[in-house]
């Protein structure tokens, strides 16, 4: 995710913090400081750091449970509205998805219980809603209330909230996954409208969250539709087989010439035996032209870690590779690891439209390429 800095690795997963988070800290400190002076500002900073510690613990609840089922997590990004763990894939088994989804909120339940029973948080239920940010209430109690709010908020049955995944997992016990996702996504979008409506009359932050939930629900529905539709389909059906490649000796200038004479936007860079060494995208070329000179070797500016999929593998494997790599292209290779084609988000979307039209699926709207890119 752009605009974020790494705090290092904890238990094998990189922890990143979004730069906007620092604005949030500064804003809270300023707001508290203008009401209660320096001591209040310091207390606000301590509270917000403690809250983000709890959010991080929540994300690790998901991450470590996923790892238990053999699923890795690239990184966790802390945003002002919470944390996002880029868990590489969700398990197909509903029971596993259920446990991964519940593990996050469960961590906050444990923290809240500890704060109330061991660390002396005490709450007058009448003032619960206003407790956070109230200077007369001690930090431990405020932190306990935040954890309770985190549990309630995350259990809203809407993607990308954990409650949405819990709902889908429960539905998956009775229905197939695509159907379960569609129903869970519809409920999520309805919840988003509800939140947005509340936001209109109250907290404007709810409007942003509503938009976020709405987009995430649409994304999730498309992503699963795509994977389901690609099951049992041969990869070659959606593979681009006539395409230009760049030689490992090529320069950025030669790449630009190729860009201008084709309609392609992603160019595989292959060595003499036809093996994929990397991919140079149109954006990568533009960046390279701006930063260096046209004689620069493409090897120095291409993206190296491009995922490849065997041409005999089912299309669903290529779809999963595209969705989890965050890259716009996967290389399709033969048994000798030579490139025989590429699959991009764009031509995958084209394939889906053709497929949907030929099957007469009215409900499957053509997915825009944006919907399946950069799932974080
Ligand atoms: Zn969560």
From TrEMBL:
Name of a matching Pfam family: CBS
SUPFAM superfamilies tied to this protein:
CBS-domain pair
Q: Which GO terms describe its cellular component?
A: plasma membrane
Q: Which residues form the CBS domain?
A: 239-298, 302-358
Q: Which cofactor does it need?
A: Zn(2+)
Residues the record marks as active site: 59
Principal location listed in the UniProt entry: membrane
Segments passing through the bilayer: 15-33, 39-57, 98-119, 139-159, 205-221
Q: How is the cofactor bound?
A: Binds 1 zinc ion per subunit.
Q: Which SMART domains match?
A: CBS (SM00116)
Q: At which positions is Zn(2+) bound? A: 58, 62, 162
Gene Ontology molecular function: any one: metallopeptidase activity
Alphabetic keyword roster: CBS domain, Cell membrane, Hydrolase, Membrane, Metal-binding, Metalloprotease, Protease, Repeat, Transmembrane, Transmembrane helix, Zinc
Membrane topology, as annotated, equals: Multi-pass membrane protein
Q: Which InterPro entries match?
A: CBS_dom, CBS_dom_sf, Peptidase_M50, UCP006404_Pept_M50_CBS
Annotated compartments:
Cell membrane
Annotated GO biological process: proteolysis
Q: Does the keyword rRNA-binding apply?
A: no
> Member of which family?
Belongs to the peptidase M50B family.
Q: What is this protein called?
A: Zinc metalloprotease
- Source species: Nitrobacter vulgaris
């Amino acid at each position: 995710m752009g605009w974020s800095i790494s705090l290092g690795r904890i238990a094998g997963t990189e922890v990143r913090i979004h730069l906007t988070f620092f604005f949030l800290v500064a804003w809270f400190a300023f707001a508290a400081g203008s009401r209660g002076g320096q001591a209040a500002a310091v207390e606000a900073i301590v509270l917000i750091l403690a809250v983000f510690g709890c959010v991080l613990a929540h994300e690790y609840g998901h991450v470590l449970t996923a790892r238990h089922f053999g699923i890795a997590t690239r990184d966790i990004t802390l945003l002002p509205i919470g944390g996002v763990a880029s868990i590489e894939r969700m398990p197909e088994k509903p029971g596993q998805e259920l446990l991964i989804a519940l593990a996050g909120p469960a961590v906050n339940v444990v923290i809240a219980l500890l704060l109330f029973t061991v660390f002396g948080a005490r709450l007058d239920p009448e003032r619960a809603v206003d407790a956070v940010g109230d200077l007369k209430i001690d930090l431990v109690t405020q932190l306990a209330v935040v954890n309770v709010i985190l549990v309630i908020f995350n259990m809203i049955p809407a993607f990308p909230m954990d409650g949405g995944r819990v709902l889908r997992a429960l539905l998956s016990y009775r229905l197939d996954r695509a159907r379960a996702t569609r129903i869970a996504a519809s409920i999520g979008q309805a919840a988003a409208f509800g939140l947005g409506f509340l936001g209109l009359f109250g907290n404007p932050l709810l409007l942003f969250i509503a938009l976020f939930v709405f987009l995430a629900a649409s994304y999730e529905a498309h992503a699963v539709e795509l994977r389901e539709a690609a099951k049992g389909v041969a990869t070659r059906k959606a593979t681009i087989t006539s395409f230009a490649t760049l030689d490992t000796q090529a320069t950025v200038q030669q790449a630009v010439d190729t860009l201008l004479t084709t309609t392609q936007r992603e160019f595989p860079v292959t060595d003499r035996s036809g093996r994929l060494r990397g991919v140079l995208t149109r954006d990568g070329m533009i960046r390279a032209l701006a930063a260096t000179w046209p004689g620069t070797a493409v090897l120095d500016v291409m993206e190296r870690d491009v995922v490849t999929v065997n041409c005999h593998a089912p299309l669903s494997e290529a779809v999963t590779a595209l969705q989890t790599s965050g890259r716009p292209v996967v290389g399709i290779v033969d048994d000798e690891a030579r490139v025989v084609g590429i699959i991009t988000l764009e031509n995958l979307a084209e394939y889906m439209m053709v497929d949907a039209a030929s099957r007469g699926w009215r409900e499957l709207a053509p997915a825009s390429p944006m919907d399946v890119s950069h799932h974080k």
